[in-house]
Amino acid sequence: MTTGALARVIRSAAARRPDAERCDLCGADVEPEHRHLYDTGQEEVLCACRPCSLLFMEEEASEGRYRLVPRRRVRLPEVGTRELGVPVGLAFFVRHSDGTVSAHYPSPAGATRWEADAGAWREVVARCPPLAGLVPEVEALLVNTARSAKHHWIVPVDDCFRMVALVRREWRGLSGGSRVWPAIERFFAELTEQPQDPARS
Known about the structure:
Elements: H1 3-15, E1 35-39, E2 44-48, H2 50-55, E3 66-68, E4 74-75, E5 90-95, E6 101-107, E7 110-115, H3 118-127, E8 139-144, E9 151-156, H4 157-170, H5 180-189
Antiparallel strand pairs: 1-2, 1-3, 4-9, 5-6, 5-8, 6-7, 8-9
């Protein structure tokens, strides 16, 4: 590397904000409103810069380990989920490529997961046909009926991960304390419908 090239690298590194988020694939800084990828192997959400996210926008890339998380959000009418065995009013459901459906609910220790009954899920979808279009792995049915709330959404899975992180951060004591439920209410109040993925338009 020439002296001039090395100087440019040093200046570029110095110009980066130390708190800047980085792309988990290439290490580049990402914009505040960046896209996410879902790592099906590690079952985690990764930050992606625009060039890396574009690599996974083609339909054929959706079958690999990394899946581009869509931005679609759709508010649904009330969806009964009692037969799915949900023990709490705040939960989300993810359909997988093999046809199974996993149910999750947030807790102070993270998300608790179990497999939903396949027949019960088909009954739920029959009552709410939009759920048949859930994109496997990367979209979820998000439900909040706790404390008389009535929220039912199709959301990208990164919204669900944000909610789990929020509960872990705000939970206090055995019952959650005074901060967690107002924070959950704000989370749902800030959800906005996004029928189309703007990156594909």
